[in-house]
């Protein structure tokens, strides 16, 4: 992935858009990546993947509910408290 600083990306924005059609372009400001420019096709694919994963996890949760593999919130909180209390220092 190509990395440009924000000033160069601003100055070369047209080129950034063209390059982003081939691969994502990272934009750095003060030495840290603050944005990534990618093609609309890549963005749509990423969005579709995220949506598919979310649907899969929701279905797993629904399957657990139907199978009775659930724990109430109070039990979860108590288990977490016990893990914190009993955690090695």
Overview of the molecule:
By secondary structure, the chain is an alpha+beta fold. The chain has 2 domains: 2-38, YefM-like fold; 42-85, no CATH class. Helices cover 62% and strands 17% of the residues. The chain is built from 4 helices and 3 strands, in the order E-H-H-E-E-H-H. The chain has a 3-stranded mixed sheet. A hairpin with a 2-residue loop joins strand 2 (25-29) and strand 3. The longest helix has 28 residues, at 40-67. The two termini are 41 Å apart. The model has no long low-confidence stretch (mean pLDDT 95). This is Antitoxin. It holds the Pfam family PhdYeFM_antitox. Antitoxin component of a type II toxin-antitoxin (TA) system.
Sheet/helix structural class = alpha+beta
Count of helical segments?
4
What does the average pLDDT come to?
A: 95
Percentage beta strand: 15-25%
Total domains: 2
Terminal CA distance: 41 Å
Percentage of helical residues? 55-70%
| Total beta strands | 3
Unreliable spans? none
- Largest beta sheet: strand ordering: 1-2-3
Radius of gyration: 22 Å
The H-and-E topology, N to C, reads as: EHHEEHH
Main beta sheet strand tally, sense and closure: 3 strands, mixed
């Amino acid at each position: 992935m190509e990395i440009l600083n924000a000033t160069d990306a601003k100055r070369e924005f047209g080129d950034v858009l063209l390059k982003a059609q081939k691969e994502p372009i990272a934009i750095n400001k003060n030495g840290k990546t603050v944005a990534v420019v990618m093609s609309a096709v890549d963005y749509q694919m990423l969005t579709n993947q995220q949506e598919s994963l979310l649907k899969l996890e929701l279905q797993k949760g629904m399957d657990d509910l139907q199978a009775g593999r659930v724990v109430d919130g109070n039990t979860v909180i108590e288990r977490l408290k016990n893990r914190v209390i009993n955690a090695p220092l």
